[in-house]
Design a protein that fits this description.
about 375 residues; DNA polymerase, domain 1; hpI Integrase, Chain A; 3 domains; three-stranded antiparallel sheet
Length: about 375
């Protein structure tokens, strides 16, 4: 235990009890603080034998197994979740859950970006899994684990700036399309280049619908609604509602020419020999960007490009939220200023209205 002087006549008595740091502030002289310190020490020692948590020997490895069974394995990101929980097991699996406090979680989190060299965004995804797991450990499984509060709540995470506004300019869009068309056919023939056809279609869908990569890879042939010009997105919204995105006629035509794999109704099934369910376009997409002379651009920025140009062409913010599948309009409001800038720059409708009003005023003056 210790006594810390904060200001004149204000002290803080600190002690550790049941594996946690505790404190109380005392207004008055130092002697009063010392008296309270002795009382706290006495109470702690008297009740130590009643501390049930000391008798709880539930290890982190057991918690991870239970969490995976009831939650992790049922998520759409189950494969990534498995990798994250195994990482937690390697570092903290041998400890008792009751030993995991804010300091332990903070040390584990710092190790993600430090020793392991993960990006801030990836580290946050790891932390979210830890937070969810410890939340369950401190609520519905608290009797088995000995936790009564989530230790991850004590950790301040460095969340990446989610206001990234990188989107393709008009010139970049033309160069991207030219790069896609460049290898559409096999050199010197009129045969479709099957190697690049898959990537071409995935990029065009992302660019013209705003769909996430995971949503595109999860799309199935029954989701394509040619007659209605829509594509159903299997990532359902809250309440079980299905989300739909616009399907451009040009993209629909390319989909009709794309070979159907009868062994799986996925439009883009995993390639032969692919391990796991997570699929990316990293190598081929980077080559595409290089040929199009586009730098500092990610695949997810195709989604930003769709949303940005949607708003710059007079789109409705609430309709955009539905198309993108945002559960909170605040996530979509980042694109609102693009719409405002565009309206301020053009203002054609307002200008025409003003001309009409001026014309009417001039005619009234002539009549008078």
């Amino acid at each position: 235990m210790s006594i810390c002087r904060l200001t004149e006549g204000l002290y803080e008595v600190r002690w550790r009890e049941a594996g946690r740091n505790k404190s109380v502030r005392v207004h008055g002289p130092l002697e009063l603080a010392k008296k309270i310190e002795r009382k706290r020490m006495s109470a702690r020692d008297e009740n130590r034998h009643l501390d049930v948590k000391r008798e709880v020997n539930f290890r982190m490895s057991e918690l991870i197994d239970r969490y995976w069974k009831h939650y992790g394995s049922k998520k759409r990101s189950a494969e990534r979740e498995k990798s994250i929980t195994e990482g937690i097991r390697n570092e903290l699996g041998k400890l008792f859950v009751r030993e995991i406090d804010g300091v332990a979680v903070s040390r584990w989190y710092a190790n993600l970006t430090g020793f392991r060299g993960l990006s801030d965004g990836t580290a946050v995804r790891h932390f979210n899994v830890m937070h969810h797991m410890m939340k369950k450990a401190s609520t519905i499984w608290s009797k088995e684990t000995g936790l009564d509060r989530n230790p991850a709540d004590d950790v301040e995470v460095r969340r990446p700036d989610d206001t990234r506004e990188r989107y393709l300019s008009e010139g970049e869009l033309r160069r991207l399309k030219a790069a896609l068309d460049e290898k559409r056919l096999r050199r010197g023939t009129k045969d479709v280049n099957r190697t690049t056809q898959r990537m071409r279609l995935i990029v065009l869908i992302a660019l013209t619908t705003g769909m996430r990569a995971s949503e595109i890879f999860g799309s199935r042939w029954p989701d394509v609604m040619y007659d209605e010009g829509l594509l159903a997105v299997r990532a359902k919204l809250k309440g079980g509602k299905m989300r739909y995105v616009p399907l451009l006629p040009e993209v629909a035509s390319e989909l009709k020419r794309y070979p159907v794999t009868f062994s799986d109704d996925l439009i883009f099934p995993p390639r032969a020999g692919a391990e796991g369910r997570r699929r990316r376009l990293e190598g081929s997409f980077e080559d595409l960007l290089k040929r199009a002379k586009i730098s500092k651009f990610r695949f997810h920025d195709l989604r930003h490009t769709f949303a940005s140009w949607y708003m710059m062409n007079g789109g409705d913010l609430y309709e955009l939220a539905k198309i993108l599948g945002h559960s909170n309009i605040k996530m979509t409001e980042r694109y609102a200023k693009l719409g405002r800038k565009h309206i301020a720059r053009t203002g054609n409708t307002a200008r025409e209205l003003w001309k009409l009003m001026e014309l009417e005023t001039h005619e009234q003056a002539n009549t008078a």
